[in-house]
């Protein structure tokens, strides 16, 4: 143990930094042991990969002496820290040595993880799943991310790709998904899919309160307009939400049948939709998770910084 | 280490017995270390639970000195060795203290496991998946069983129920499954589902070679008649097989997206159908396993005794 670590949790002792890299913001936390001692957010630069690395490095420098840095990324990465397929992050769509570039700037070891697997790890260790050994994490947002934990560890699988719950097929003849498949959970339950369903109702001229909500301008529709209209009983908003809940319920029932979790934790930028999705989601889960049986579906315990907390925690997981 | 074990692998040294309890036969192997030193099969008695236990005990006595006995069961069980829901085994549909009853007869520790999870463990340790850390096992037969292995261990999940790959929903409005759900993989790809599809073709009077194959008597249809007719190009047999392959492909693509295995191993009583199912199965897997990517699908390496081998191997796994 280094002198810094032996100094314990006093001011100035080294921290583990967790960064949650998103398309619009870099959320961060500084962890000492399992305590969040600082947290914040910075805008994601739009001028290229180097600028993104510089912005992350600036957060790291401000955090003080570092034991390690974990970065949760919205996409894929290789074990050597090369990111790829971060389609939502300006300048990082292609292959980029993100881990090495950041480590060079901050002088501390850097480990990459997928953002939804980071969320799942945080909820497993410190959040709504901390009493569980078998847990499923789902993030609702622009996409549907996920992670599965078995026997107390988040599953990585071949090439760190396990956990893509949102790309299960629920309608073999369904709409084309960004992944290239048809009828994925994501084509029903992601924010863009829900907005598209609401836009259809407005555009087809039916009697829906969504029209007044957006002033007749479908590009002004927001997820909150749809959930609010559904809560108020608008049948078209309700239909969009229920179709999302059923699709998510089918996907989660499949996961229950495959890994038999003790709990499902829901987070992500659209996590507030859980309660309006819950009736259709839970009815579907109950009917379709057989013979394994359904399990409780709960809201995330760590709030919007769960992904950053999980990214920090990944630096302490054994390499596999 | 006991004196018996120290005596090594010579004749008379204790063996680990693996029993694969099926509706019509009890298959068994005797393992010394990882070598099958004897194997066989006995009919499953139809006169009740006690007779089934006696038949298993008779196999055990014939096998000689026993270190432990593992029993693979076609259904559910509690950690204390109580079986339930063995719908295909005469006398064992309800709750029965199978482990304790057999242990009392044979004087050795008895451990229960699910039959498809036993198959998966055997293929992971000694069969077609022995080079893999992340593996999926599928058994084709009266039902569609399964198991998933992560980081070199078969996943058990809550109440030992993980691995029910055959009860994933692939058609939300599909036929009612024995499990109570609609449109499970099993409603397309199990032997009864394939026979029902063939029977429909014969009964609706279309031009299919299946009619001549069964002499017009649909109850005489066999799985081999359907796979042979499909191989010969009969369009109705081909359609039944392709629908089975697509459904299995969707289920396996979902599993790829969830756990990112290195390989999928196919076994069970209807495993010979893999090659006729392969074109539709693999095309579906390729198109739908995104962004994780497909993996090779291979035939089981251990043959019809894989389940019994896995049942024996379970006795050496840590309890969790």
| Proportion of beta-strand residues of chain A | 15-25%
Mean pLDDT of chain A: 94
- Biggest chain-to-chain interface with counts: A-B, 49 and 49 residues
Put simply, the count of helices of chain A is 11
**What Rg of chain A do the Cα atoms give?**
20 Å
What is the H/E string of chain A? HEEEHEEEHEHEEEHHHHHEHEH
Q: Note the main sheet of chain A.
A: 5 strands, mixed
Q: Any idea what the shape of chain A is?
A: globular
| Low confidence ranges of chain A | 1-10
Distance between the termini of chain A: 23 Å
Widest sheet, order of strands of chain A: 3-2-1-4-7
Query: Could you state the oligomeric state of the chains shown?
Result: homodimer
Structural class of chain A: alpha/beta
Helix content of chain A: 25-40%
Annotation, overall tally of beta strands of chain A? 12
Question: What would you say this structure looks like, in words?
Answer:
The structure is a homodimer of 320-residue chains. The first copy, chain A, is an alpha/beta fold. Chain A has helices at residues 3-6, 49-63, 98-106, 115-126, 186-189, 191-203, 209-214, 223-231, 235-259, 274-288, 306-314; strands at 15-21, 25-32, 35-43, 66-73, 76-77, 83-84, 110-114, 135-140, 144-150, 153-154, 263-267, 297-299. In chain A, helix 6 (191-203) packs antiparallel against helix 9 (235-259) and helix 8 packs across helix 9 (235-259). The longest helix of chain A is centred in the last third of the chain and has 25 residues, at 235-259. The radius of gyration of chain A is 20 Å and the shape is globular. Chains A and B meet through strand 9 and helix 9 of A and strand 9 and helix 9 of B.
């Amino acid at each position: 143990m280094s002198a810094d670590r032996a100094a314990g949790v006093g001011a100035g002792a080294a921290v583990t930094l967790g960064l949650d890299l998103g398309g619009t913001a870099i959320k961060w936390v500084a962890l000492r042991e399992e305590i969040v001692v600082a947290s914040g957010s910075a805008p994601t630069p739009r001028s290229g990969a180097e600028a993104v690395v510089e912005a992350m490095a600036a957060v790291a420098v401000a955090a003080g002496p570092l034991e390690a840095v974990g970065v949760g990324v919205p996409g894929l990465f290789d074990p050597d820290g090369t990111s790829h397929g971060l389609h939502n992050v300006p300048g990082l769509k292609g292959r980029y040595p993100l881990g090495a570039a950041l480590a060079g700037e901050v002088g501390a070891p850097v480990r990459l993880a997928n953002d939804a697997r980071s969320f799942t790890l945080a909820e497993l260790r410190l959040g709504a799943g901390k009493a569980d050994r078998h847990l499923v994490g789902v993030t609702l947002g622009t996409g549907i991310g996920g992670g599965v934990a078995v026997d107390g560890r988040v599953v990585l699988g071949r090439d760190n790709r396990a956990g893509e719950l949102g790309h299960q097929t629920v309608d073999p003849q369904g709409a084309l998904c960004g992944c290239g498949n048809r009828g994925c959970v994501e084509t029903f339950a992601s924010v863009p899919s829900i907005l598209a369903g609401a836009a259809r109702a407005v555009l087809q001229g039916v009697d829906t309160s969504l029209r007044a909500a957006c002033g007749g301008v479908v590009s002004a529709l927001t997820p909150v307009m749809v959930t609010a209209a559904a809560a108020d009983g608008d049948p078209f908003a309700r239909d969009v939400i229920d179709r999302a809940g059923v699709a998510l319920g089918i996907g989660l029932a499949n996961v229950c049948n495959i890994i038999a979790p003790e709990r499902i934790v829901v987070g992500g930028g659209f996590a507030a939709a859980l309660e309006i999705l819950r009736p259709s989601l839970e009815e579907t889960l109950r009917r379709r998770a057989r013979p394994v049986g359904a399990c409780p579906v709960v809201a995330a315990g760590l709030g919007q910084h769960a992904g950053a907390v999980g990214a920090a925690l990944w630096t302490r997981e054994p390499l596999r």
